[in-house]
Amino acid sequence: MPPSSPPRLALPVACYVVLLVSALQTLVVPVVTNIQADLGVSATSASWVVTANLLAAAVLTPILGRLGDLRGRRPVMLGVLVVVLLGSILAATTSTLPLLLVARVMQAASFGLFPLAIGVLREELPPQRLTGAMAIVSGMLAVGAGIGLTVTGLVMQHGGDYHRLFWLATGLTVVGLAGVLGLPRRAAVATGRIDWIGGGLLGLGLVLLLMPLEEGNSWGWGSVRVIGCLIAAVVVLTGFVLAERRISDPLVSTRMLTHRPLVIANVAGLFLGFSMFAIFLAVSYFVQTPPALTGYGFGSTVLAASVVYLLPGSIAGIVTAPLGGRLVGRFGPKNTLVIAALVAFAGFGLLVFLHTATWQIIVGAFAVNTAVMFGYAAMPALLIANVSPAETGIANSVNSISRSVGMSLGTAFVVTMATRNLIPGAPVALPRESQYVTVFAVGAILALAAATLVALALPKNKPTHLSTLEVEEEEIFGAAGLEVPADLVAKENAARA
């Protein structure tokens, strides 16, 4: 780094834009039912406000991270923030679902700010400050989620227009733009090209897959539209795999789809994403259900749903992240991943049988979110043990995609269950209690299956002997879908030798 460069802005700007990523992600979740009522659409249609955002993020995040390497991180961050700004303005001014979905896809570009922000820190900060700075920035993901939930609850505590949330997002994005403008210009750090073909095929295939899963109740599960979309999804995703084999810089390396330890790691990543959003949406919907009409739920306001029931899960991310690092350092990534799956099993299992008191919901959700954080801590070390040092970047990128796809699947599953087996005669569409019990039961079954799969199918591992800070550093690179530094890879591989 040239001595004349001003690194002072790097950390606060990186913290702010990552906080913005997480806040934009959580702002909308507690008000999906408000959006449904305001736009006069079905619950499945309204849920695409979340699903479209996550699907776009699955494709855009690795592409934007790669674009930052090729074009420079500062200009790409500015471009991303402009797109997010325009998306926020569109969402704040439209009252039609199609335009709102376009706006949410534009806002999904914000997910790319996390790997870009980590890249900025690597460019601007000296090595002795880098690990601590990255830990602070990574913590902003959980802090931003908590702030987003709290702000949503406060803005909507007396009801009112959900558009105010998007105007708030507009203002927050303007502040982010001003901060990034203050960063120094740096040259690009890589050569190559973007896999636009792979990104397009992956995005189209995922939409074709998830659309019938969410709309199956209204279209009919045996309808031509459902079957046609599923067949088209298989065709497009097959084309995606074939295309990736022929592209020199693929979005997804096909080796990551065939090597057994990597397949299992990505299935585990899929489960982590599924668990995060399944518990997030299920709890949000469940606690806002009026018990006078259904015999279950708490009739919570948006404020109570956000702060009382959802916020503790975000706090779990802050509190338990260091513990996950210690588990990986002492017991190794495989055993930590098994522990994570069993904790998720306990959380979902609790909610299957106990969901009539506030503390039960909070404890169950806290356990699942803790499991997700343990899994995030274990995943990079697990990947490092099974790829060459040069492949850690693409391995983390593929795992990041699998987590985003899992989030989308979790959203689709909860919406599907919440829009079938409805209570007859209710003034609004409300599912029976058994539908939520099924969501929690499926989460528990998948968690137990994940624990069994990891325990039996992955080779034995040794403790990494990395410090908690080093494990957290690996976790940050993994969450961002970036290449893990060579010194960490070498140290971990030496410990296993």
UniProtKB/TrEMBL annotation:
GO terms for molecular function: transmembrane transporter activity. Its main location: membrane. Residues 10-462 form the Major facilitator superfamily (MFS) profile domain. This is MFS transporter. It is found in: Cell membrane. It is a multi-pass membrane protein. The chain crosses the membrane at residues 9-33, 45-64, 76-93, 99-121, 133-153, 165-184, 196-213, 219-242, 263-287, 307-325, 337-355, 361-384, 405-423, 435-458. InterPro entries: MFS, MFS_dom, MFS_trans_sf. It holds the Pfam family MFS_1. Signal peptide: none annotated. One of its GO terms (cellular component) is plasma membrane. Keywords: Membrane, Transmembrane, Transmembrane helix, Transport.
